[in-house]
């Protein structure tokens, strides 16, 4: 498979290593939107760039008729615009706030726990996400997915990085050198605490998941999520 890498930083490089080991060819690797050329020669484009560039990069891939997957976070306020653009141009698109198998299993665990906890108002939910100091966005895309899933199953209506109101889930975003990504959800009452946690030990799970998603989406049409790829949930 011929892969175009839109973004060639920590994730782009990890994806390249895994893709080559799985016999794929990297035919384009760029660090800016202006360098994206001849995209139609790719079987799949993989965008791991920066929040302000993702939308333009994804549109270029859709315009070229190339299936595109994006793991870039921090641009989700424009997700509906992109899916509408993709439908209008009969394109193929998949976004995941987190491509790792472990986090996608954790997403399901979070939904199950929030369903259980929804009947017990004595518990308050809160979340801590911890990442390396180079991360541009806060909270992480993964934390937002986790919070949105809790909101869907409970009486919480919003998440916040600030002091929470009664119907808001507090997310604390910690930045510590070298941490690939840790997410912990805690339900606290006067009597006890229940918590679930996912800790990434490296970027390998994210990169492997992105390559598996690229292999899966190659000949498909439409808008997908990692639930389609992994067949879970
Ligand atoms: N969904 C998931 O599973 C995961 C998502 N992420 C997300 O992926 C994104 C990238 O993460 P990471 O690789 O660690 O970040 P990096 O900063 O290491 O890499 C981003 C790269 O994008 C390049 N870039 C800047 N502008 C553009 C542009 N217009 N078009 C294409 N490339 C551009 C940067 O170039 P330069 O070096 O010149 O600045 C850099 O090389 C982040 O949003 C992060 O949150 C990260 C891990 C997992
Ligand atoms: O920027 C990162 O590094 C990560 N970003 C993603 C996110 O925002 O959730 C996924 C992972 O946690 C690593």
TrEMBL record:
Q: Which residues form the Dihydrodipicolinate reductase C-terminal domain?
A: 102-230
Pathway given in the UniProt record: Amino-acid biosynthesis; L-lysine biosynthesis via DAP pathway; (S)-tetrahydrodipicolinate from L-aspartate: step 4/4
Gene Ontology BP annotations: diaminopimelate biosynthetic process; lysine biosynthetic process via diaminopimelate
The protein's location, in the record's own words, is: Cytoplasm
Q: What class of enzyme is it?
A: oxidoreductase
Binding sites annotated in the UniProt record for NAD(+)? 71-73, 96-99
Reactions it catalyzes: (S)-2,3,4,5-tetrahydrodipicolinate + NAD(+) + H2O = (2S,4S)-4-hydroxy-2,3,4,5-tetrahydrodipicolinate + NADH + H(+); (S)-2,3,4,5-tetrahydrodipicolinate + NADP(+) + H2O = (2S,4S)-4-hydroxy-2,3,4,5-tetrahydrodipicolinate + NADPH + H(+)
Organism superkingdom? Bacteria
Q: Where are the transmembrane segments?
A: none
Q: Which family does it belong to?
A: Belongs to the DapB family.
Q: What does this protein do?
A: Catalyzes the conversion of 4-hydroxy-tetrahydrodipicolinate (HTPA) to tetrahydrodipicolinate.
Q: How does it assemble?
A: Homotetramer.
The identity of this protein, by name, is 4-hydroxy-tetrahydrodipicolinate reductase
Organism lineage string = Bacteria, Pseudomonadati, Bacteroidota, Flavobacteriia, Flavobacteriales
């Amino acid at each position: 498979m011929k892969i175009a890498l839109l973004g060639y930083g920590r994730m782009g490089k990890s994806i390249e290593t895994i893709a080559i080991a799985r016999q794929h060819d990297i035919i384009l690797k760029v660090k800016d939107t202006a360098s994206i050329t001849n995209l139609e020669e790719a079987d799949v484009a993989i965008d791991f760039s920066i929040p302000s560039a993702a939308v333009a990069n994804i549109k270029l891939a859709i315009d070229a008729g190339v299936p595109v997957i994006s793991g870039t976070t921090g641009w989700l306020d424009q997700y509906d615009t992109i899916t509408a653009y993709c439908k209008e141009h009969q394109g193929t698109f998949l976004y995941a706030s987190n491509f790792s198998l472990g986090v996608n299993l954790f997403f399901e665990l979070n939904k199950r726990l929030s369903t259980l906890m929804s009947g017990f108002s004595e518990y308050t939910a809160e979340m801590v996400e911890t990442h390396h100091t180079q991360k541009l966005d806060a909270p992480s895309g993964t934390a937002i997915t986790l919070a949105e899933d809790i909101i869907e199953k409970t009486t919480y209506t919003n998440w916040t990085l600030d002091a929470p109101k009664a119907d808001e889930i507090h997310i604390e975003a910690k930045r510590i050198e070298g941490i690939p990504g840790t997410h912990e959800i805690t339900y606290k009452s006067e009597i006890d605490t229940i918590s679930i946690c996912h800790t990434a030990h490296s970027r390998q799970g994210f990169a492997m998941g992105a390559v598996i998603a690229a292999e899966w989406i190659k000949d498909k049409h439409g808008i997908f999520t990692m639930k389609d790829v992994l067949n879970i949930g």
